[in-house]
């Protein structure tokens, strides 16, 4: 007969064991709700650093190793040139040999050549060239795609370097280092679309937002367990987009409103000239429009202003 006191003690001891150390069956684990599972711990080092970068896509900054890629391409290129010359010499030698009549006129003769023969060696060299050329082409296309990736800002690299110092050891933490002159590694690329944003958005994220953080957040609000202050980039982008929409809607109306009170024709032309430059500058700063799009939009607003002036009537400037 079991001792009830010992049973109770063993039950209490069993309850004291943390759940993380208790074996769990796959069925029990699969039926557990994900809401009640504890959040995974991110240990210091690369796991924690990866968590920081993964939670902030704007800091997905990596080296593309352009010098190394170029070096490998040059080696492969030289190797292909050497093999190309060897194949050419082998083709000439086999065509002039009496032992291999018609070898260069029939692929079947090369494919079924006796192992160790000159035709067999030529066919093996062709296959080696095919593999090397495929490797060369893939690396060249990868190299081209890497060059098209946008470069990160020095502010993002500087921020990432601060966290790299906290998580990684030298020399691993030196990839994102920015010197006193604001220079960084020349071959860094970013996988985020932040680098493709308009100048105003970049200024907001890189200058105004850090300034707001230093003045109103840092030292007043506790950071999270990773020592970070988290902001929702999507919310900030929506705010910026709404600001851009409001400004783009009000500018044309503001110009028409101003022209309504300017009755002198010369002053109206001067205002249209100045406003056109101001409107073009706003398009360049607040949008990612290209030169052609800015030109077309500016011509459109000028046309609207000219039509308004013509239909509203003006007072010519009096001479003398």
What's the topology here?
Blueprint: H1 4-16, H2 26-31, H3 46-55, E1 61-63, H4 66-96, H5 107-111, H6 118-148, H7 154-167, E2 188-190, H8 199-217, H9 233-261, H10 265-286, H11 291-312
Helix pairs in contact: 3-7, 4-6, 9-10, 9-11, 10-11
**Terminus-to-terminus distance:** 125 Å
Helix and strand content put the structural class at mainly alpha
Helix content: 55-70%
Order of strands across the main sheet: 1-2
* Biggest β-sheet strands, sense, barrel: 2 strands, antiparallel
Strand content: under 5%
Mean pLDDT over the residues: 76
State the order of secondary-structure elements, H for helix, E for strand: HHHEHHHHEHHHH
Question: How many strand elements?
Answer: 2
- General form: flat
Specify the number of helices. 11
C-alpha Rg, in Å?
35 Å
Question: What does this protein structure show overall?
Answer:
It is a single chain. The chain is mainly α and 320 residues long. Helix content is 63%, strand content 2%. It has helices at residues 4-16, 26-31, 46-55, 66-96, 107-111, 118-148, 154-167, 199-217, 233-261, 265-286, 291-312; strands spanning 61-63, 188-190. It is flat, with a radius of gyration of 35 Å.
Question: In short, what is this structure?
Answer:
This protein is mostly helical and 320 residues long. Helices cover 63% and strands 2% of the residues. The chain has a two-stranded antiparallel sheet with strand order 1-2.
Features of this protein?
320 residues; mainly alpha; two-stranded antiparallel ribbon
């Amino acid at each position: 007969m079991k001792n009830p006191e010992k049973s109770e003690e063993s039950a209490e001891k069993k309850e004291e064991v943390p759940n993380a150390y208790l074996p769990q069956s796959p069925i029990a684990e699969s039926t557990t709700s994900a809401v009640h599972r504890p959040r995974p711990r991110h240990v210091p080092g690369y796991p924690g650093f990866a968590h920081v970068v993964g939670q902030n896509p704007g800091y997905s900054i990596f080296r593309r190793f352009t010098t190394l890629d170029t070096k490998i391409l040059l080696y492969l290129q030289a190797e292909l040139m050497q093999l190309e010359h060897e194949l050419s010499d082998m083709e000439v030698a086999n065509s002039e040999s009496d032992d291999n009549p018609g070898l260069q006129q029939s692929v079947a003769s090369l494919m079924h050549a006796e192992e160790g023969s000159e035709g067999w060696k030529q066919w093996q060299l062709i296959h080696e060239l095919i593999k090397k050329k495929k490797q060369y082409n893939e690396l060249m296309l990868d190299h081209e795609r890497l060059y098209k990736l946008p470069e990160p800002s020095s502010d993002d690299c500087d921020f990432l370097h601060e966290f790299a110092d906290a998580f990684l050891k030298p020399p691993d933490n030196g990839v994102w280092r920015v010197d006193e002159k604001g220079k960084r590694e020349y071959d860094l690329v970013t996988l985020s679309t932040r680098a493709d944003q308009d100048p105003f958005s970049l200024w907001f994220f890189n200058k105004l937002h850090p300034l707001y953080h230093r003045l109103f957040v840092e030292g007043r609000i506790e950071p999270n367990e990773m020592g970070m202050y988290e902001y929702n980039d999507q919310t900030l982008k929506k705010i910026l987009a709404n600001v851009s929409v409001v400004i783009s809607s009000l500018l044309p109306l503001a110009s028409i409103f101003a022209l309504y009170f300017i009755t002198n024709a010369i002053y109206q032309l001067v205002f249209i000239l100045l406003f056109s430059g101001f409107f073009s500058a706003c398009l360049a700063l607040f949008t990612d429009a290209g030169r052609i799009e800015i030109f077309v939009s500016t011509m459109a607003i000028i046309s609207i202003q000219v039509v308004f002036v013509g239909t509203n009537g003006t007072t010519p400037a009096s001479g003398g």
